[in-house]
Amino acid sequence: MTYDPSQDGAQTDFRRLMSYGDYLHIDQLLTAQKPLSAAHDEMLFIIQHQTSELWMKLALYELDAARRMIAADDIAKALKMLARVARIFEQLNSAWDVLRTMTPSEYSRFRDDLGQSSGFQSWQYRLIEYAVGNRNLAMLKPHEHRPDLLALLEAELERPSLYDEVLRRLARLGLPVPEAVLTRNLSQAWVFDEAVMAVWATVYRDPSHHWEAYEVAEKLVDFEDYFRRWRFNHVTTVERIIGFKRGTGGTAGTPYLRRMLEVELFPELWRVRTEL
Questions:
Q1: How confident is residue 131, by pLDDT bands cut at 50, 70 and 90?
Q2: Do 52 and 95 contact (CB within 8 A), yes or no?
């Protein structure tokens, strides 16, 4: 049986109307994949990384809004946004499953065509790390050839990170966050602080009395949990495909990525569990 959706009122004539493809700029999206080799699997490699960049764009959008909401003491909205960021990283984790269908021999057919390009040069990924508090100034160097991107990253370093905003909110709630933490040099990476862990211990020992702080803490842990899984999946995918070869961008490859697994975004929230 042939079905005509227009008989039920569906719009099918878009000569003078905006269509789905027009709204989403589908033509531009679907012509952005330009393989440099004849290798079949290069298309997978390109699309996996392009879609990851789109998800990271949304993560940045939500993180930016969440920080603004926390600064404005609108915690309910911030919690929704942080929950969404965790789900975004769940989606990013799933992408590795698709990339892992590519074998070492398949990747080797186009790896040389990548030149010196590498995922660690992703300015959006770097901006996410800076936004949540992992502020490694050495990672500005890969972006020095782009003054616009360098300015964007440097501007981020002048803003309170997500964790900084959370700690400022705890102080406004009357919790004893040290003044040195509240006035610290924002451009520097966060360093574990015993006094901050003591604040979180107070929250976790009496969550009903500190429910807002408790809920925010668990949202941060949710996010870092998925973020850690994303890093771990990155390591295992790279090891599965190239073993221990150096990365295309000159990094040590798998050993470099394994070092990144040791980075803690919110160390007090993980270590406080030992104290409870």
A1: very high
A2: yes
Between CA 230 and CA 38 the distance in angstroms is: 30
Residues 238-268: tens digit of each pLDDT = 888 878 776 666 665 677 677 767 789 999 9
How do the domains of the chain map onto residue ranges? 41-275
The token pair that represents 183 in the structure block:
């006035």
**Structure-block tokens of residue 135:** 């502020």
CB-based burial, 135-164: b 16+ in 10 Å, e otherwise: beeebbebbeeeeebbebbeebeebbbbbb
Angle between helices 123-132 and 42-71 (to 10 degrees): 30
Q: Is 175:213 a contact under the CB 8 Å cutoff?
A: yes
Under 8 Å between Cβ of 70 and 166: yes
Q: What are the pLDDT digits (tens) for 94-114?
A: 999 999 999 999 999 999 999
Let me know: does 170 contact 177? Beta carbons within 8 Å: yes
Question: What architecture does CATH give domain 41-275?
Answer: Up-down Bundle (1.20)
